[in-house]
Amino acid sequence: MTSSNPPLHDLSVAALASALRERHVSALETAQHFLARAQQHQALGAYVALNEEATLAQARAADARIAAGTAGVLEGVPIAHKDIFVTRDFPTTAGSKMLVGYQSPFDATVVTQLAQAGAVTLGKLNCDEFAMGSANENSAVAPVGFDAPAPVRNPWNHDHVPGGSSGGSAVAVAARLAPAATGTDTGGSIRQPASFCGITGIKPTYGRASRYGMVAYASSLDQAGPMARSAEDCAILLSAMCGPDPDRDSTSLDMPAEDFSRSLNDSLDGLRIGIPKEFFGDGLASDVRAAVDAALREYEKLGAKLVPISLPRTELSIPVYYIIAPAEASSNLSRFDGVKFGHRANNFTDLEDMYKKTRAEGFGAEVKRRIMTGAYVLSHGYYDAYYLQAQKVRRMIANDFQNAFQDCDLIAGPVAPTVAWKIGEHGNDPLADYLADIFTLPASLAGLPGMSVPAGFGAGGMPVGLQLIGNYFAEARLLNAAHRLQQATDFHLRTPL
Fold first, then answer.
1. Do 264 and 236 contact (CB within 8 A), yes or no?
2. Which of 42, 126, 293, 490 is the most buried if burial means most Cβ atoms within 10 Å?
3. What's the predicted TM-score (pTM) here?
């Protein structure tokens, strides 16, 4: 590219894909540029694995397909994957000591689908251990360039957290270390770090994207989604990621892939946006509220109508989630016992002792906390009192949304009660992290699509995200609303570096 053009890392996914197809730049040159960026900004702790040889081989293959006229929609576009998706060419740790050194013999479905669209894998991105966390301070794996585990740092202020658990993904996109990244959202782990880092991220309807090859945390909640700078980019990526996978994921929905960018430019005239009163209570920081209110005023200018609604069981989403998710985690993580793969204790006297020592050594404090909580609520005498009741309330939360959608087309509000806090600020108080999920958990429990859209800046110049929630399969409508807001504002174009 000539010196008059913007640097490659400032191009959107859409612009980069176009430049590659038109052969203004090669996939090899693009991959080399982003690998250099990743090395240059190691201090952020975003990447946990790079494989330059594999990345450049994929880039050369992409160039060959472009030359042959068989390019996919994402041909040659670099992407990085949250280290919760298994990959053949890169190690997979899920941020845990338990999986250090593990190399998967296959790729996750999401990784495969993006590769089939032509995307080139840059590397694996840091995350909270087994996707359990709201700050990306729980990783037990050393980032690239580090000798020991370290928290991922928010590129807007290195003393602040990036959000979790997809913190590495959010940082890589925000700092322009990758044009886009995959993330996973169990209780808000795409939306919250997207908000904290000033990027766009979307969690589709549960079952839209295959969970095959995603290291499981809570199977009825985990969902993959893209993280990028704009709604347009997310629409392109989500179109490639979604689709049925019945042979390998029993929770995959039997719905064909679709073009989520088809209605990006539709008018918002008459769009009814529900404003839940429970999202705007005393716990919402004034700086976050100001940014969200300003975004809602933009929607009114675009022709949308704001409608007051109620989601009365919002507060109950925290206890419900922190019963159901740990219960499922205690089951899913039982496979990590030191027998077939992963970490195994060096010294033990018998099989039971090996189990105990392996799991004590391999799991971090937050993972142990959730396993113990989950085992407790599933135990005899407590299953009915806790787990069963939580499932009943979960259904009520889902019903609250359906009642609200009688009066509105989309729901809008804050992603989190505050902007990103300082690293270590919550210390040994896990409840503080849990409470930060109050606005993202309800949609996750209901299986609804939701996204975070940059909406401005709050205290200390830290980003604020606007959350948009749609009814089942309303991803295209969500992306349309987000795209129109981004046409009217420039928050998604601002960069910390």
1. no
2. 126
3. 0.97
